[in-house]
Amino acid sequence: MKISILDQSPISSGKTAEDALEASVKLAQFGEQYGYTRYWIAEHHDISGLACSAPEVMLGYIGARTNTIRIGSGAVLLPNYKPYKVAETHNLLATLFEGRIDIGIGRSPGGSAEASLALSDNFLQQMSKYPESVKELLRFINQDFPSDHLFSKITASPQPRESPQPWILGTSTKSALLAAECGTGYAYAHFMRNHGTSIVEGYRDNFRKNGKLARPNIIIAVSVICAETTEKAEKLALSQFLWAILSSKGEKMIKIPSIEETEQYTFSEKEEEMIHKMKRKMIIGNPREVNQQLHALQALYGADEMMILTITHQYEDRLRSYQLIAEELSKNK
Q1: For 244-290, what is each residue's pLDDT tens digit?
Q2: Superfamily for the 2-330 domain
Q3: Which of 117, 181, 213, 271 has the fewest CB atoms below 10 angstroms from its CB?
């Protein structure tokens, strides 16, 4: 089973955005050391607990400090930008880091409505045009506009020897069918919506070979916390749960709480129910339990690859989680 990393670059309490971004670099290096296939970093805006608003900048920084692991955006939020600029940016990265660049494409705003307005005056219009924008981006990457098209006369410079590998990310039937129509890989965010087997099946059934991809390629992104014991993993997960709960209340300047902060907080009955729902989308446990559940989820979706998102207060606990997972999976090879 291939495993990869999804990083939201979380900022822990007592830490700064600079700390979080440096921890992201270490995570990519760590993933390379332990045999992870790819590392993707997400785009978020106006969210105080997440540090990365510009994946393309971080990818240049991370690419220069790694050697072999594939790196990419997970995702670049296309309605915020013109496809031509996105193609140029990722072609530049692919020129610098040959054979290592993925371009994950998403349609969500990635932040508040005000942030979306600040990024693009016509965000809602761009959302409605998202399928057309995706196809335009892919044509710029593949340099295959019809000869009579206005954009056939321009190039998304520089032209790399190996183009960025495109992926469409999502949690809906629309995103799955768009990926199938365009012949790209599809990454399903199980950590956001854990009932997606029919969506992924729709992608597989309707896949057309329109691009360079010979067959459907499926990544399932799942939230995982692994520790030496189940009890420790459950304890570490409380930081993510409390952060999500406080963020849902609209509280500003919320960072990932420490274990001590979670122990001082009294969860209401409603919040306990929220935690129960969040757990249904996650894998939490010791290495053996996590290994079993990852394989079960892979089989359920028929996935080619599992992409793991891990958020803990201590960055060392996050690295340890990824290490334990990789070591446990290697026992079964």
Answers
A1: 999 998 776 699 999 999 999 999 999 999 999 999 999 999 999 99
A2: Luciferase-like domain (3.20.20.30)
A3: 117
Helix pair 83-96, 55-63: axis angle to 10 deg: 10
Q: What is the pLDDT of residue 219?
A: 98
Distance, in Å, from the CA atom of 257 to the CA atom of 238, rounded to the nearest integer, reads 9
Q: Average pLDDT for residues 27-56, to the nearest whole number?
A: 96
Strand partners, 77: 106
Residue 257: what pLDDT?
96
Domain parsing of the chain, residue ranges: 2-330
Name the 3-class secondary structure at 219. strand
Looking up tokens 């971004």 gives 21
Residue (of 67, 73, 137) closest to 96 by Cα position: 67
Specify whether the CB–CB gap between 133 and 86 falls below 8 A: no
What pLDDT band is residue 333 in, cutting at 50, 70 and 90?
low
Rounded to the nearest 5 degrees, what angle is found at the Cα of 192, between the Cα atoms of 271 and 14?
Answer: 60
